[in-house]
Amino acid sequence: MSMIRSVVRGVGAYLPAHTLTNADLAQMVDTSDDWIVQRTGIRERHIAAEGEVTSDLALNAARAALADAGLEPGDIDLIVLATSTPDNTFPATAVSVQAGLGITHGAAFDVQAVCSGFVFALATADNFLKSGSFKRALVIGAETFSRILDWSDRTTCVLFGDGAGALVLEAVPATGAADEPGIMTTHLRSDGRHKNKLYVDGGVSSTKTTGFLRMEGREVFRYAVGMITDVIEDAFAATGVTAQSLDWFVPHQANRRIIDASANKLGIAAEKVVVTVDHHGNTSAASIPLALASAHADGRIKRGDIVLLEAMGGGFTWGSALIRW
Ligand code: COA
Fold first, then answer.
1. Phi, psi of 158, rounded to the nearest 5 degrees
2. Which of 218, 304, 320, 322 has its CA 20 to 30 A from that of 272?
3. What pLDDT digit, counting tens, does each position of 115-154 carry?
4. Mutation to probe ligand 1, out of 155, 227, 310 (largest number of atoms < 8 A from CB)
């Protein structure tokens, strides 16, 4: 049994200044505010400025998380950054963040699990902290999906946005108390048989281009709720937490209908669900830490609360995490 828990010390977020509304999109492709709101719940999303790259967004979110934690960059010895839209093919976007923060010790690397990336990064950092390899981690989700959207394809370009969010985790000796803070459990899954349902049609080794996001939306929808609820039930079974006893459900923000259907199937009360998809769109790996930051900043999530995270995305990949704040 692990003698260390990964405790959340701070949360931060960053959204690019420019907002693109559904009305703006209706000027670009054959769509409407009504259609987008009804099918997805999205009203607006943020778009990175020309020259503003994923590591810029990540760095701002990381600084905000460090300020929230009352820590200095030098206190961090691990950076795990989830993204599918890195600044460059290599090096990892995480090392740009590391350099931007002036950190020269420890390790920094990227994790790629598309929209599940933040949960995968969190589980990775948690395991490194619990093993004693590192002391304090920045776990970041940062994306500029606007760069891989086909802006002439109305079936995809209305769904996504840019942004970044970050958590600071600290390794703390476990007390064994039932109410001790920290990450309680994480569960990760993937099934590559579904890799062609949500993908980018380019890449270094295949086309030598970046490519554009392609999706069979209805197929993704068909699988999403079942995968999400399965991996949450795994988290409940591992901890004894229930839909009734948890305080907050902070799902990946892909689509309001998927969020509502998942919460409904699990019996999680609507007032416990944190929703930001209306203002952010789907920011892929950034969506969960952005939602966490918003519910932390406005005082909804308080110390001692049990917070359930969940994500599902390309691959398919999916995962859950339970945290006592
Ligand atoms: N505006 C207006 N009409 C649109 C449109 C848009 N932006 N996008 C598609 N349509 C049209 C389609 O062309 C289709 O028209 P047709 O019936 O004349 O062929 C009609 O709307 C219905 O399309 P369909 O794809 O069946 O709609 P849907 O109800 O499945 O909703 C999604 C589409 C993408 C919103 C929905 O499938 C979805 O949310 N899927 C999951 C996507 C997701 O969350 N992915 C990320 C996972 S991390």
1. -80, -10
2. 218
3. 999 999 999 999 999 999 999 999 999 999 999 999 999 9
4. 155
Residue 123's contacts (CB-CB under 8 Å, 6 or more residues apart) are: 186, 188, 319, 321
Residues 250-279: b if buried by 16+ CB within 10 A, e if exposed: bbbbbbbbbbbbbbeebebeeebbbbbbeb
Q: What is the pLDDT of residues 80-120, one digit of tens each?
A: 999 999 999 999 999 999 999 999 999 999 999 999 999 99
Q: What is the DSSP letter of 273?
A: B
- For strands 78-82 and 136-144, give the pairing: parallel
Q: What residue ranges define each of the domains in the chain, with the CATH number in brackets? A: 3-174 (3.40.47.10), 182-324 (3.40.47.10)
Most informative mutation of 28, 84, 221 for ligand 1 (most atoms within 8 A of CB)? 221
Instruction: Check 46, 115, 255, 280 and give the catalytic one.
Output: 115
* pLDDT tens track for 50-79: 999 999 999 999 999 999 999 999 999 999
**Are 166 and 58 spatial neighbours (Cβ–Cβ below 8 Å)?**
yes
Q: Find tokens 């339970």 and name the residue.
A: 322
* 282 in catalytic set: yes
- CB of 66 within 8 A of CB of 72? yes
CA distance linking residue 280 with residue 277, whole number of Å? 5
SS3 content of the chain, % helix, strand, coil (to 5): 40, 25, 35
